[in-house]
Write a structure and sequence with these properties.
Radius of gyration: 30 Å
Number of strands: 7
Structural class: mainly alpha
Number of domains: 3
Distance between the termini: 44 Å
CATH class of the largest domain: Mainly Alpha
Strand content: under 5%
Helix content: 55-70%
Length: 615
């Protein structure tokens, strides 16, 4: 064997040993190649490659989901006569929610966490580790819910699917917490970019909602993932499926009063939408029935609303496009309002009702057990509010009202107020309408709506709900890092214990053999009775006159506080601060002693995690 072939052979052996070391003997060919590349490329290069792969995969998932749902809706609304459509509106929305809950309970074992909150939960609570099931479960559930008429959006399920793809990709190649979080966000970014064909909006979504502490160089994987997702949707989706608005008017500064007023209107509507969502959620959670019966209630309400107002069926994007194209009468003629004389006031009443009822339709869809998000509902409602505002202005007597522009900026305003994401809303509508000259009105309306939402509630209700459950922090990014730590990993389970009925001489023997300076006192069943420190014992060690037959329960003391196994590191650190201690005993729910936990171990773990995230 010549020297060249020998080098190649040795390189192959090293390559094989590496894969055996990581347990990759059964890995697929492409996984072997990527593992090999991960060892040869630097961090930035591998993250760039990862962003492309995750972006393409998540984008393709979005394309598949959008295509399935669009074809179902197209068949119902275009291939079925109006009289028969009513039957579809009665049966399908009800069936969609019931089927979704049935599948969640039987196939996915009740794992029904959904929406953007699910991504935030995994980042904060589970170290950005998302179950591989979510790579397809969200697609299946949302396709059934929204495809059969659920009044919700596909974008949140697509984002969760993309996040799961990014997280599992990072787990496969053993990336650290920071890189795993980055690729999780890249997958969600690609999903949103694919759903709207809006790459910049996808990036804004990641930075505005998912991430709060990444460095500048980490823009690159997010950007390439967004571009890949957007390109796939642009190439593979038909024009009528894309979120595109071609009709709009040039911006005129004289119309600023319209936009200022609309900002206030959409801000108030966003608050109304969120309040209704909270009340419906509270109502459904308060009903003590099985998930399937709850789904029947939600499906029944949704079906009734869809029969009365067909625009509430599904995402509703086609209805908004009809508003911008001046095809309002065609929308009304396909509803029960066709039996009334169509006038300006008929249009106003019709629009007002669908704006008010959209909040109910979406809430009963999601909280009844369906899978979907608030992206599409907020955009639909905002567009309807904008169009209603334009019609009212025309009815009052104003001329040259920028109707199509008010529809577009109304969408941004409602989305900004509902999702607390003004930048995402601004760029989404700008990209989707080719309306970069509308940046001024988009910013005016979105910022006003967002500030009003913040005035009513500093954080979004979804985040507030997670925070109230102790699932996520809502302020600083470092707190979310802290929250990703696990209490059990800091417990010293080799702690020394002594029975409460033992003698001082027994304790002295324990001290001789131990390097600990704190001891747990337990009863015969192992339950914690008290603690002792070397400072507590020192007077007895050097006092020759002490009675050595004294039992431990005579000298032990109560701990300043007791930590439970399910307490979070954030709460434990607060207890350490409140009690001015550095070591505390940990017990299980039966009060059996488990070990000691120290303040320094938690702080060291946090610093190591922060260091790994910053590097």
């Amino acid at each position: 064997m010549n020297l060249h072939n020998r080098k190649r052979y040795l390189s192959f052996l090293k390559f094989k040993r590496d894969f055996q070391h990581y347990g990759l003997e059964k890995a697929r060919s492409y996984e072997l190649i990527l593992h090999w590349l991960s060892k040869r490329l630097n961090r930035s290069q591998f993250l760039l490659l990862s962003g492309i792969l995750v972006g393409c995969t998540a984008g393709l998932a979005g394309v598949v989901l959008k295509t399935i749902v669009h074809n179902i809706h197209f068949f119902i609304t275009n291939k079925v006569h109006f009289e028969y459509q009513v039957l579809f509106y009665i049966i399908f929305p009800f069936l969609g929610i019931v089927l979704t809950v049935t599948i969640v309970q039987t196939v996915f074992k009740g794992q029904d966490r959904k929406g953007i909150g699910a991504i935030l939960y995994e980042i904060a609570q589970n170290s950005s580790i998302v179950s591989s099931v979510k790579m397809y479960s969200q697609v299946v559930q949302s396709a059934i819910t929204v495809g059969l008429g659920g009044s919700a959006g596909l974008e949140s399920p697509i984002a969760v699917t993309g996040a799961a793809i990014g997280s599992n990709y990072a787990q496969t190649y053993r990336l650290n917490y920071k890189e795993r979080t980055l690729l999780l966000a890249a997958g969600a970014t690609a999903g949103v970019a694919s759903a709207f064909n809006a790459p910049i909006a996808g990036v804004m979504f990641a930075f505005e909602i998912l991430l709060t502490g990444v460095v500048f160089t980490d823009f690159i994987p997010l950007v390439v993932a967004a571009v890949c997702g957007s390109l796939l949707s642009r190439i593979l989706l038909q024009e009528d499926i894309l979120f595109r608005f071609h009709t709009r008017e040039a911006f005129n500064y004289r119309n600023l009063p319209y936009y200022l007023i609309l900002g206030i209107v959409t801000g108030l509507y966003a608050r109304y939408f969120l309040v209704i969502s909270q009340k419906v959620e509270h109502f459904l959670k308060g009903i003590t029935v099985s998930p399937l019966r709850k789904a029947m209630i939600g499906g029944g309400v949704l079906s009734l609303l869809c029969v009365l107002f067909p625009p509430l069926f599904g995402e509703g994007y086609e209805t908004v496009k009809a508003f911008t194209n001046g095809e309002t009468n065609s929308i009304i003629e396909n509803s029960l309002f066709r039996y009334f004389e169509i006038s300006e006031w008929t249009v106003i009443v019709f629009l007002a009702l669908i704006c008010l009822l959209k909040a109910f339709a979406t809430s009963f869809t999601i909280f009844g057990g369906g899978n979907g998000g608030n992206f599409a509902p907020s955009l639909f409602a905002g567009g309807s509010v904008g169009f209603l505002f334009a019609v009212i202005c025309q009815q009052i007597g104003f001329t040259e009202v920028p109707t199509s522009n008010l529809v577009l900026v109304g969408m941004a305003g409602a989305m900004s107020g509902v999702l607390y994401a003004p930048l995402t809303a601004i760029f989404l509508i700008a990209e989707s309408s080719f309306g970069y000259d509308l940046f001024i009105p988009l910013m005016i309306v979105s910022v006003i709506s967002y500030l009003m939402a913040k005035w009513f509630s500093p954080i979004s209700p979804e985040l507030k709900s997670l925070a109230a459950q102790g699932k996520i922090f809502t302020s600083q990014h470092d707190e979310n890092l802290l929250f990703s730590l696990r209490t059990e990993s800091f417990i010293d389970r080799q702690a020394e214990t002594i029975n409460e009925h033992a003698l001082l001489t027994d304790l002295f023997e324990v001290i001789k053999k131990s390097n600990k300076n704190i001891f747990a006192v337990t009863d015969d069943s192992g339950k914690l009775r008290g603690i002792l420190t070397l400072d507590d014992i020192r007077p007895y060690l050097f006092n020759k006159d002490i009675e050595l037959s004294v039992t431990i329960n005579k000298i032990m003391k109560s701990p300043a506080a007791i930590v439970n196994m399910d307490d979070k590191p954030k709460a434990i650190l607060q207890v350490f601060d409140n009690t001015n201690t550095w070591n505390l005993p940990v017990v299980n729910p039966q009060n059996v002693f488990v070990g000691f936990i120290s303040k320094s171990s938690i702080l060291t773990g946090y610093r190591e995690l922060l260091k790994g995230y910053s590097n």
